[in-house]
Structures are given as C-alpha cells and as structure tokens.
Design goal:
Two copies of one chain form a homodimer.
Chain A (H helix, E strand, L loop, with lengths): L2 E4 L8 H10 L4 E3 L12 H4 L13 E4 L2 E4 L1 H11 L7 H23 L14 H29 L15 H16 L1 H7 L4 H11 L2 H7 L22
Parallel strand pairs in A: 1-2
Antiparallel strand pairs in A: 1-3, 3-4
C-alpha cells in the first residue's frame, strides 16, 4: 500500500513533519499535489470529505488504505507504531504524543510571529503587531519551549540524551529537527545566538540531518525549501 | 484507582475539558490543586517532573496509576477508550482525535483574542491588538471553525446529527459544549447573533448540558465559573 499525502505543494508547512517521518522509514507515499499536472486541485476532494473519514479542517491529510487522517500530530501518532517511529510501550507512546503536541503549540506560535492578528489577513497588514509578537516570541516563548526540550533531552537517560523519547529516534526527534531548521531560517541572527544555549537539541538536529534517508531526502527535489508563504518565514525586520 | 488531575485551581481553562470527561463517566478523581490547604503549590512536583513520565510543559496533567500524561488532547485520547468516551473502532478513534486537535486550535485562537502579542504580557499591554485580533476571530475564524463543525455534525449519519463522532456522545462533544459555553461567555453579543447559524451545534451543547452527571457537576462547586484569568474572557470592548 502506498500512502497518499495531501498537502499544499509549495511550502514545507505542517506537511513536512509527515514527510520527514515517511522518508525516514522509507515508506512509499505519493505527495499528491506535487504529482506533475495535478497540483493544488488534487486537494479539493479530500478537503471536501469525499474520500471518506471525517472531513478535514485543513491539510495535511494522510490516506492510508481506507483511513483518511487529518491533524499533523494525529497522523504521526498513527504512523509511529506502524513504522518503528515510536517505542512499543504505552507510557513512551503517550510521551511522544505529548511532546508532539507541545511542538505543535510551538509551531503555531512561530507562525503567529508573522500573523499575530489573523491568518485571514496578509503579513503586510499586520507588520507593527508582528514586530511586537516576534520580540515576545524570541525573548520569552522560544527560549521557554526550547529550554524545556533541552531539559527533556538531558533527562532522557534511556538514550543518554541523544533522543527525546526512549532509546531510539522517534517522530518527535524528526519534528524537532524541522523546528530547528525553521527557526534558523526565520531568525538567523536571534536563533543563531540562542542556539548556543541548547547544545543537546542542536546535536540532535545534526544527528537527524545525518541519517542516510533524511540526508538523501534533503538533497532531493522532494524537499521543499522554506519560503515566505509557509510557517517559518524570514522577514529580516522581525529578526533582531 | 483514583485519577489525579493537576491544573490551576482558579480557572476552567484547558483542565475543564478533562474534568468534563471524568465527570460524565463518573470516574473518581482528585482535582489536586483544589483540595483544601493544598492549592497551586500542589502543582510544582508534577510540573518539575518528579512524579515520573515526561516532564510536562504546562498543565493540565493527569496521573493515572504509574502514568503521568500531559497535553489536553492526549489525556482525552487516553481516557476515551477506557471509559466508553469514544467508539471502539480505529477509524472513529482517529476521527475523535482529529476533531479534538481542531478544537484545541480553536481554543488557542480564542485565547489569543486577548493575548495576540504574547502570553508573557498582560491584556492591558496589548489592548489595541486584542481589538483587531478579536475582530478577525469573530468575523473569520470563529465562523470558519464552527461552520465546519456544524457540517461535520450534519454529515454524521451514525448519530443522525446528534453527536460529532459515531453513534453516541464522545469526549469531543463534551469539549464542544465547553467551547460553546466559553464563546457565549466571552462574546455574548457576537456569539449570540452567530449562534443562530449553528443550530445543530447549539442543540448538541444543550444535549450535553442535560446529561444528568454533567448537570449535577455544573450545579456543584466543582465547576469553576469562567473569569478574566482564563482562556475565555469577557472584555466588553472586544465584543461588538
């Protein structure tokens, strides 16, 4: 069975967390809206609910045989046990789910640095507010989240601080890699300075990047570059 | 076994979604920070990670025997199958998880109407931005979310449009009740007018309120009233 991923074809966005999981385990999948001649129109049936399952509120959506699954953390929690992306332990599965939801909260806040008033408005219509929110994010929220995960990593004796949950890499580590790449892209100055305070997370990110399948994926045209339509956007005026 | 719920003692907040699930099934639990003479200090050990599990980023946290579980949607997904709060079907369990995460997104956006710049600042320090964000929320986001759930409800043939997932009420319905109560409290004028467009969700909410255990809970001192320290706050200047 080939998975079908339904996501916007021009941004890494939330779909990238799913792509990284599928790529890391070499699971066969079609990135439906990126198939030549299909494009974004290919998303409409799934977003309209006509492929079955509960109609999604938004992409990403994963079709796995008869199942049609939306919400990033839900997709990853589904894939985890099927592909060895999470330990076979109820407690550690719950830990992974918990961390993925905290990452989702961080991702939403990173998005809102350029959309503090609303995703229904353009960035250009909320620039002063974006500046204020970015400052609060960079000063308080980003360090709170990443400082927390740095401690979680240090406390994980099972992996000797190499991975966030259990002994081996999980989808949570792959997602953390993407968050770190995104923050580095969006805020090269501020994140560059801050990153010295989270050496274990930075090493984790390097470890993910060096995984053969992830490295091959990153070098392939399948990996979409960060850009100013996505979650992590580089607006120099927001990076002090 | 008695569950232990760790949450702020003075607001409904995200803890309320867990309380409603526990109350609806009559599960024994201690709301630890509300035990006389304990208070908020009772949260520190669990937030410090000393009760086991992955250290939580924030409350609510549920202790279930040896398990220590954080993130609201994760707690509900754990409780669901154990207490008949979700159907015994992989597809419907995934649907419930998906909807709960969409509700979590809506709740975060409702929170940000009074904290668009950052949760590290007071409302008083972000009033003009709150007015703009509330307008965008009430004009675009709230109708988008609730219009979506109204359609999900109408499309659920299994319950004839009575409940969101499967035949019977799930934790998703209990959470939707809380969202509707919260929006009614925060934005009585705007939500009052808008609510006429979502008759099925309003009927669902009435149906939840009429459940004997929920009605008894709502009439008890265990139910914490909405207030201006929580997620759903009534600031008349934000309600047009």
């Amino acid at each position: 069975m080939k998975y079908e991923l339904y996501y916007w074809p021009s941004i890494p966005g939330r779909g990238e967390f799913v792509r990284l999981a599928l790529e890391d385990v070499g699971a066969p999948y079609v990135d439906v809206a990126r198939v030549p001649k299909r494009g974004v129109d290919a998303l409409f049936p799934v977003l309209g609910g006509s492929l079955g399952g509960a109609r999604p509120f938004a992409p990403p959506v994963l079709r796995a045989g008869k199942l049609v699954i939306a919400q990033t953390a839900n997709i990853l929690a589904y894939l985890g046990p099927k592909h060895g992306l999470v330990p076979r332990s109820e407690a550690l599965d719950l830990e992974a789910r918990q961390h993925q939801l905290t990452i989702a909260d961080l991702v939403a806040e990173a998005h809102d640095t350029h959309h503090p008033i609303g995703s229904s408005l353009y960035y250009e219509d909320q620039k002063p507010e974006s500046k204020r929110r970015s400052t609060a994010f960079l000063d308080a929220r980003m360090p709170k989240y990443l400082g927390y995960f740095e401690e979680v990593l240090a406390a994980n004796k099972k992996s000797r601080g190499k991975w966030l949950v259990g002994r081996d890499r999980t989808y949570v580590d792959l997602s953390m890699f993407q968050v770190i790449e995104g923050l580095r892209y969006a805020f090269p100055k501020r994140f560059g300075r801050y990153s010295k305070k989270i050496p274990k997370l930075m090493a984790l990110s390097d470890r993910v990047a060096a995984r053969p399948r992830i490295a091959a994926y990153a070098a392939s045209p399948r990996r979409i570059a960060f850009n100013e339509d996505g979650i992590f956007r580089h607006y120099p005026e927001l990076d002090r």
